[in-house]
């Protein structure tokens, strides 16, 4: 169960960081944007790991002997990418108007990593559907809060969220090896 919590928090950090950036661009009260970010990011972060899990189940028989190494490498790559991105400018820097199309693109972009991480759900003794719901709800909450944090404080916490998420994913990958 603790793995679900850590995985949920780690996977939501990309969406949290983007939400902070989006909130920092708001000039008026960001309640609608917070709801929009929560729904878009939460739904996609819940669906993508499920897709990864189902795909992982399909190939698990072929790679079962070294699946923990594959999961570790995936989490290491995803975590490393998040750590790298924590030191660069956010994708939302170039966004001037936040439309549904923009939110859809951001939701897909921030959840692609979650699809790869969904493969690791085949190796953890948990219900993948409960894990995906937890990931979606956690992402909804972090995205909602992230917009308000960005609105109040700007982008100061944006890179720290991605850094934390990357470190947590790498630690989960290490735990799978031992």
Verbal overview:
- The protein is elongated, with a radius of gyration of 16 Å.
- The protein is built from six helices and no strands.
- The chain is an all-alpha fold.
- 79% of the residues lie in helices and 0% in strands.
- Average pLDDT, rounded to a whole number, is 83
What general outline do the C-alpha atoms trace? elongated
Order of helices and strands: HHHHHH
- Beta-strand portion reads under 5%
Gap between N and C termini: 17 Å
Sheet with most strands: none
Protein name: Manganese efflux pump MntP
Keywords: Cell membrane, Ion transport, Manganese, Membrane, Transmembrane, Transmembrane helix, Transport
InterPro entries: Mntp/YtaF, Put_MntP
Transmembrane segments: 33-54, 66-84, 104-124, 129-149
Layout of secondary structure:
Layout lengths: L1 H23 L6 H33 L3 H19 L14 H19 L9 H26 L4 H20 L1
Helix pairs in contact: 1-2, 1-4, 1-5, 1-6, 2-4, 2-5, 3-6
Q: Top keywords for this entry?
A:
Manganese efflux pump MntP, cell membrane, 6 helices, 178 residues, mainly alpha
